[in-house]
Amino acid sequence: MNVSKLLETVNSLAPLDCAFEDDFVGITVGSEDSKVNGLAVAHELENNILKYSIDNNINTLITYHPPSMKKKLEEDGTESFEEETLTSKFREAGINIISIHTAQDVCKGGNADLLVDLFEMTNTEIFAHTTGEFGAGRIGLIQKTSSLEFVKSLEAKLNTKIVRTNKYFKSIKEIKSIAVLPGSGTQFLDEVITKVDVFITGDISHRYLLKGDETNLGLIQVNHLSTEIPGMKRFVSNLSIELGTELEYFYNKYYE
Predict the structure, then answer these.
(1) If DSSP states are collapsed to H, E and C, what string results for the chain?
(2) What's the whole-number average pLDDT of the chain?
(3) Model confidence over 91-140: pLDDT tens digits?
(4) d(CA 182, CA 227)
(5) Which of 106, 124, 139 is the last residue of a domain?
(6) Which of 41, 162, 178, 231 meets the CB 3.0–4.6 Å disulfide criterion with 114?
(7) CB 229, CB 117: distance < 8 Å
(8) What is the pLDDT of residue 95?
């Protein structure tokens, strides 16, 4: 199998055309004409993944996060991108990389839908649209619960103790509706204000916590990867079935 054939299979599970327009998905390093001699899935590129790939003759990786790039402003005012050092090391080692990122967030059965399943959400609707019916966020109803019990449940469902809330969240007596968005989704906060009791996502900056206080919206920030790992585990399981081989999935458990 060559990389282009593998890309077709990946695309059948997480259609790349549904990613955000400015996202860096698809074959991000290497060539679609290369033969896949060894394959693994990693949440992102790290030095230990590079060593593992070289030691185990793996020449192709599927990653959730795209390889790191530096944005450069050219003299004519146009923007270009230059590989970070780690990304260049993977290229120099002859490793092909397919990245799925927000395509995996928005697709049917992807990261956002997995959060719906985990929190047993009903009457769901999509927000943070990319294209057509696809979007990175989900709004829905949950079984009524207190804020304290909800946090305990969230920690168990997402296997994390990294939980931060805004001040307003502490005053909520009963939670009946939530919004979820894997990764970092505060740029879509305005789409859920007045629609839900609580919004759960990662990487919430201080100004957004304050905005939640101002608009009576509870905010929960969990670790970035914790919202993505459950959906990626499902993706790896589905891809393993499609390819007829058990794939390994690597992620940094420190950031879970």
Answers:
(1) CEHHHHHHHHHHHCCHHHCCCCCCCEEEECCCCCECCCEEEECCCCHHHHHHHHHCCCCEEEECCCCCEEEEECCCCCEEEEECHHHHHHHHCCCEEEECHHHHHHCCCCHHHHHHHHCCCEEEEEEEECCCCCEEEEEEEEEEECHHHHHHHHHHHCCCCCEEECCHHHHCCCEEEEEEEEEECHHHHHHCCCCCCEEEEECCCHHHHHHHHHCCCEEEEECHHHHCHHHHHHHHHHHHHHHCCCCCEECCHHHC
(2) 95
(3) 999 999 999 999 999 999 999 999 999 999 999 999 999 999 999 999 99
(4) 5
(5) 106
(6) 231
(7) no
(8) 97
Average pLDDT in the 141-166 region? 96
| Enclosing domain of residue 83 | 3-106
Q: Does residue 214 have a pLDDT over 90? A: yes
Predicted local confidence at residue 255, as pLDDT: 84
Tokens matching residue 146: 């207190």
At a CB cut-off of 8 Å and minimum separation 6, what does 247 contact?
39, 40, 41, 236, 239, 240
Q: Are residues 40 and 74 in the same domain?
A: yes
Look at residue 251 and tell me if it is in a domain. no
User: What residues pair up with 215 in beta bridges, in sequence order?
Assistant: none
Tokens representing 234 are 């499902």
233 within a domain of the structure (yes/no): no
Nearest to 106 by CA among 234, 17, 206, 209: 17
Better-scored residue on pLDDT, 69 or 76 = 69
Say what the pTM is: 0.93
Q: Which of 193, 245, 255, 251 is nearest to 219 (CA)?
A: 193
